[in-house]
Amino acid sequence: RVVVVANRLPVRVQRGDNGELLYSISPGGMVSALLGVRGMRMIWVGWAEIDDTTAAEREQIRRTLWRREIRPRFSREMQPRRRLCEDSSACEPVSLPKSGARLHYAGFCNDVLWPLFHYVTDLRSGFHAQWEAYQAVNGHFAAAVARVARPNDLVWVHDYHLMLLPGLLRARQPRLRIGWFLHTPFPSLEVFRTLPMRKEILSGLLAADLLGFHIYDYSRHFLHACTQLMGSELSLESRGIAWDMPLPAAGGGGGGGGTMRHSVRVDAFPIGIDPDRFRRALDAAEVKGRVLELQRQYAGVSVLLGVDRVDYIKGFSTPNGRAGIPHKLLAMETLLETHPQYVGRVVLLQIAVPTRTDVPEYQKLRAAAHELVGRINGRFGSPGYAPVQYLDKSVDFAELAALYHTSAALSINRLGMNLVAYEYVACQQAAKGVLVLSEFAGAAQALEG
């Protein structure tokens, strides 16, 4: 069996208006990334995303998710996720205290690790309490995995939220096969070493059997960090590391039980998409009809498409502190200023997918983007023409496929793997759209040449 461990479950639990518990399929990228996995029995372990529950409700949630007694409603574009949920054997929810969950996710993960892994070093006061919550939450996950994992199971841990978990699991169940995959970049040594708890995190990861990264550069950064920060405990092997892993003392606890030579394979596993899914979509009547509508709507106009998460980290910094989507808007403004012949002939259609809307930095970024959109449309727009069309929402799969197919170009911000680049190429087919891809995006290595 495969035990998939991620910060969130593929099923979201929410409380309805009348206090009842409601279940729906999570919209996260982790679920999408595993759409192609077939013929494998998986048990998911993750945070249930609901607090203020009674002990009886927590037991009810656990029984419902374990037995898959879920009957959420699925739209057409969610059918693949329905199949994924049904193919999974069960879900084991992790219940977290509200304050601990906030300090872990919105605190250490989003305030410390996420910026750091995208080359923004800005440790703020209070990160010690966030680190304590991060350790505690990883402990809760270890206990949840221990409830369901058998000695010879394969435990597949995901992402930066759970970097201590491999070490905690190894101490509990030494025979487990443990893998970990990072869905973000891993920074260079010069950046990673600014993290005060760097050795604790590396020790937690090195207890796994396999560590996976998007591209070779990220795995190389990790190996460099290990050799420089862990000292004589490590020796490089072919595609991996051998190190003297501390053993727990008799009766449990941390170290104190000596060491054991442990080998860890470190490699790059570029994540991809199912291109046939997008090709099939272009043959669907609904998408064909939408393509014709878009071609009529933008007749004589070239559409420059942007599909980005609203994220203040992903993008180049500008002198005024703006980055990401605002940077792209400024580029559009510069284009119209320096090449006025394109006014009325080109449109930037920016899909800005909301994320972490409760974080102040994201609220500031959204406000900055709205200000720029108003300024550009006010300067260069006219009746019937708005140079920037900005959508503060995600769009469904059929609409996205149609937009990919009809747009003249797609612009991608830097960093991360950016699977949107693959999706755009899959939907172009006979069209000759231009992919403008930052060299810092992980997908650039796979698409080079």
UniProtKB/TrEMBL annotation:
GO molecular function: alpha,alpha-trehalose-phosphate synthase (UDP-forming) activity; trehalose-phosphatase activity
CDD domains named in the record: GT20_TPS
One cellular component term from this protein's GO annotations in UniProt: cytosol
Record protein name field: Trehalose-6-phosphate synthase
GO biological process, alphabetically ordered: trehalose biosynthetic process
Signal peptide: none
Entry-linked Pfam families: Glyco_transf_20
InterPro entries linked to this entry: Glyco_trans_20
Ranges that cross the membrane: none
